[in-house]
Write a structure and sequence with these properties.
8-stranded mixed β-sheet, 7-stranded mixed β-sheet, 30 strands, binds 5'-O-[(S)-ethoxy(hydroxy)phosphoryl]adenosine, metal-binding, ATP-binding, AMP binding, ligase
Length: 654
Amino acid sequence: MSTTSIDSLLHEIRRFAPDPAFSAAAVAQPELYDRARADRLGFWAEQARALDWTTPFTETLDWSNPPVARWFGDGALNVAYNCLDRHVEAGNGDRVAIHWEGEPGDSRSITYAELTREVKKAANVLAGLGVGQGDRVAIYLPLIPEAVIAMLAVARLGAIHSVIFGGFSAESIRARVEDADAKLVITADGGWRKGKVFPLKHAVDTALAAAETSVEHVLVVRRGENDVEWDDARDLWWHEQMASASEEHEAQGFEAENPLFILYTSGTTGKPKGILHTSGGYLTQAAYTHRAVFDLKPETDVYWCTADVGWITGHSYVVYGPLANGATQVLYEGTPETPHPGRWWEIIEKYKVSIFYTAPTAIRSFMKAGREIPLAHDLSSLRLLGSVGEPINPEAWVWYREIIGGGTTPIVDTWWQTETGAIMISALPGVTTTKPGSAQVPIPGISVDVLDEDGSHVGLDSGGLLVVTEPWPSMLRGIWGDPERFAETYWSKFADAPNGPLYFAGDGAHLDVDGDVWLLGRVDDVMNVSGHRLSTMEIESALVSHPIVAEAAVVGASDETTGQAVVAYVILRSKKAKSVTAAEASQMLRAHVAEQIGAIARPREVFIVTELPKTRSGKIMRRLLRDIAEGREIGDTTTLTDTTVVTVIRETSR
Ligand code: WTA
């Protein structure tokens, strides 16, 4: 984030006190903070007991061997049972679990009884294909009910899912399937996006042809009805398998630390890391935060989180949190502007959505398109709004409340990460007086701090690095196959704190005079584009994998709509690139990155340059490149080898 926007954030003085009527009926009451402060572990044990355990736990936390944490370690439960069967057994089988809208306008409403039946059948299908406890299953699907069913079926068997976002490329699938050594891939022929069917199975075919894998079968959901190639020995239609599957499936308990999923996310190196989450602690915090932060009243609310299940937000706040709580929710397959720019607001009106959770980048693009689009719809059912993924600028926050929330709804700005598994910092609706642009306070049960580089608390009205000071139930348990990288990335920076190592989040933060937290963006080489994490190194490696590229540097430059945008500076190999113009090379490389990683990583700009600014020790000066990309006066260049480089780059990027 640029310095100017940090300034405008920190000078924000508007305050929004809770409405007393909302507070009186709110799920979260101020005593939650006191209870959690008085007995933190007891508080978490109480939250965990809101779940159904096949073997009750007696030990809440084992932190004797940090950074390895064991939560509720001697207990056992079945995650899918907690999200499904128990609601049916409690008499809520007829409650709608999912109101699904397909992009072309088809829709399905699925009750808890129906969803439970489908998941039992799918669990039988997977078991029949040899999937059992600990096996990895890759899921590459559009946002259709089968995505949720597949995840829960894997969970029901004690196996591990690795959901790959449908926008990722064949190459990204290959890397993930190989890293996790997946046994089965579940995909679809295609899905709907922007009025067209995009092929998914084709990407899986390409990925598996290139992969050294152990994938035995590919299970294919029919959705796009596009033509697909078929390998009789490997491929199976989901609907055919489901048609003959038994509806009986008894959920078995698995130990609380049984792995639930791997989700790949960008780090500071070129290789995405497989973040590992386990069962009992993860589900405890996903369910508790979903209840308390979103003020969920499962009997009456209609909840909608717009995230895809390919991201952590879709795992925790589309699948596990809402379903563990027996919520009724909306699931929408397509893009917000298809077939018209008011599609989201039409869906809110149609289903009378009361709780809505989305990302600042979406809010900013609606602001740009104009308030008349949402205002043409009846949004009066909304009573709570949430934001996630990146800092929300105060103007977008206020617009969200005024235009979408009718000037009355509380807004919860929720800070968390793939690694934290669930919400960590957020206002509690009905309790907290909110400040536009600040995520504010750790939720009850969580403790965070802002430290300087030496590990000292920065004090009020100062900035530094955000850390989590105590282990929490939904914390990541590791990086798949790489315990050293896990310890090094998150736990080594502040390893010597008196009560064990502190979790380093990689975000900069400012504490205001009240002690509220204002997130300031990443402090490492991770960019945040439209709320999605991308690593500069990952895109640089994609660029240099192209034969015409000699060297590449990538930065995240601030962007009005997407928060940050990918900007690349590339030096071409003079021989290989002889016959292409700079404009052609730039186009080619943008497309190449999209093909290597996925469309979300496509650079906004690729500048062809002859040199890159480096320090005397040979490090690329990204800060300087960012200044150039954002059109700012460039800062201190005294450590540069050759200051003329900067002028050259400036000229070329104009
Ligand atoms: C950023 C998404 C400010 C942050 C759940 C974090 C935020 C990264 C917020 C994690 C927020 C997420 N305010 N920044 N409310 N929420 N971030 O893993 O930089 O996709 O480290 O998880 O997004 O992104 P991830």
